[in-house]
Amino acid sequence: MTNLAQNLLDAADEAPDHVALRMDDVALTYREFADAALRVAAALQDRGVSPGDRVGMVLPNVVAFPVVFYGTLLAGAAVVPMNPLLKAREVEYYLQDSGARVVVALAGSSGPVEEAAGGVGVEAVAVSPDLPRELLGDECLTAATDRTDEDDAVILYTSGTTGRPKGAQLTHANLRSNARTGGRDLVESTRDDVIMGCLPLFHVFGLTCGLNAAVLARACLTLLPRFDGAKALEIVARDRVTIFEGVPTMFSAMLHAPDHDRYDMSSLRLCVSGGSAMPVEVMRNFEQEFGCIILEGYGLSETSPVASFNHPHAERKPGSIGTPIEGVEMRLVDDDGKDVPQGEVGEIAIRGENVMKGYWQRPEETEKAIPDGWFRTGDLARQDEDGYFFIVDRKKEMIIRGGYNVYPREIEEALYEHPAVAEAACVGVPHPDLGEEVAAAVALKPGQEADPQELQAWVKERVAAYKYPRHLWLVDALPKGPTGKILRRAVEVPEGVR
User: Fold this and answer.
1) Which residue in 18, 104, 384, 437 has the fewest CB atoms around it within 10 Å?
2) Least confident of 343-347, 392-396, 452-456
């Protein structure tokens, strides 16, 4: 039996009365969780869902998400998770491209999903947030549907920097391995742990390291449907959260929340950061303020996601994404796929049990991404003498100014060192002579003041002359993706800068 959902059935046998899921006043034990998921599986089968079919899910971090997710897997189908903020035309594309049989949405906000489903002739089911009662059949599946290691468990659409989103096929083996190694083993979670579920479950970081790792460890996952720094602090204190997992902007939001020092954070034993590079200043300040350690890792949708980590019992290097996890290899290659010398910048290539099967119905894209068994990430990094990897930047986001490479991450790090800066994004803008000029958008901390000239001078003191941003402007907030990751490509450049 290789169905990932078997983990839930085993957890219900071993810890039936242990609280598995919590969302404010709502709580489900592992037995209640498993029973509800088995009833969802039966209801999906009654709707004509067969092993290998796809089921769309457009749900935020509510209790219904894990129940429908595991119910879909128990029925033998693959889940197609989607961001609830998507518009009807975007949902329609995902449904059409994946060939989904059914789509599940949240009651009260399912209008765009129902519109999209109607456009492609797919059944839409709106469910309650605390329990998907509308999808709980009278019958109950008695066992997980047989699946093989290579069968799809999730088809996760990646936003991509160019072209239409592509569906990364993550198998039962991919997700089972990554939940075990990237989730449970690295953070050493047990049934005594309470894991913060504020990372979106429709994103692979939250799905693997939050939900699937919690089920595997028989731990409790406490859910936050919409992230807010103060609310996150409140939940940590209220539920005695022991493991907090987030992206850097979440740590910043908690750090800058009003009265953050009045919350009891003493239960935290470990924090995990991923999704984008953690500014060293944010890491240092968070650890100092809340008295806990942050371990940074790295991964992508296509790698289930965890590929490398600052391992808990090894040296931790702030600013590093650590070393590969068990069952994973990483190397740095040039444009021809050849290894670069140690210390030089190259593209991260990954091979291992975490790498996706391919892009759904896109053999040419799959061949391009995995030409020789090594997945090309598009991320540039260097490796030190101890084997630790340091992200330099996205290959596609590197700025080439007059023939010189400028890596946005380096400029952002310098800006984050300024005491007034909360968020920063460095981008390239067209220049008639240099090709590209360095620019930066900055959001200040509440109550802080700094003018653009001051910030430019600050960076100029810290980087080579050709690197500092010639254009810099202040914004209230920076554009972010579904996980809270700052999206450089979505930064609006003011008129006159172009």
Assistant:
1) 384
2) 392-396
Secondary structure, 3-state, 415-450: HHCCCCEEEEEEEEEEECCCEEEEEEEEEECCCCCC
Cα 310 off chain centre by: 17
Name the 3-class secondary structure at 382.
strand
Contact predicate 219/195, CB 8 Å: yes
How big is the CA angle at 208 (ends 205 and 212), to the nearest 5 degrees? Answer: 150
Measured distance CA(120)–CA(61) in Å, rounded? 26
Q: Which residues of 178-188 are buried (b: 16+ CB within 10 A; e: fewer)?
A: bbbbbbbbbbe
What is the DSSP code (8-state) at residue 490?
G
User: Using the 8-state DSSP alphabet, how is residue 218 labeled?
Assistant: T
User: Model confidence at 498, in pLDDT bands (50, 70, 90)?
Assistant: low
Q: Write the pLDDT tens digit of every residue in 56-81.
A: 999 999 999 999 999 999 999 999 99
> CA nearest 171: which of 151, 147, 148?
151
Residue 454 DSSP SS3: helix
Q: What is the pLDDT of residues 145-154, one digit of tens each?
A: 999 999 999 9
- Cα–Cα distance measured from residue 469 to residue 331, given in angstroms and rounded to the nearest whole number: 31
Q: Are 349 and 333 in contact (CB under 8 A)?
A: yes
Question: For residue 482, what pLDDT band results from cuts at 50, 70 and 90?
Answer: confident
Residue 471 near residue 445, CB atoms below 8 Å: no
Which structure tokens are listed for 312?
Answer: 């808990």
**Average pLDDT of the segment spanning 132-142:** 93
Contact indicator for 30, 82 with CB cutoff of 8 Å:
no
pLDDT higher than 80, residue 487:
yes
Token representation of residue 229: 């720094």
For the stretch 255-264, pLDDT in tens is 999 999 999 9
Angle CA 348–354–359, to nearest 5 = 80
Q: DSSP class of residue 231?
A: H
Assign 292 to helix, strand or coil: coil
Around Cβ 80, how many Cβ atoms within 10 Å?
26
Its pTM stands at 0.90
| Total residue count of the chain as it appears in this document | 498
Tell me the C-alpha distance between 263 and 285, whole Å: 16
- Cβ atoms of 157 and 82 within 8 Å: the answer is yes
| Mean pLDDT rounded to a whole number for the chain | 94
Q: CB of 87 within 8 A of CB of 52?
A: no
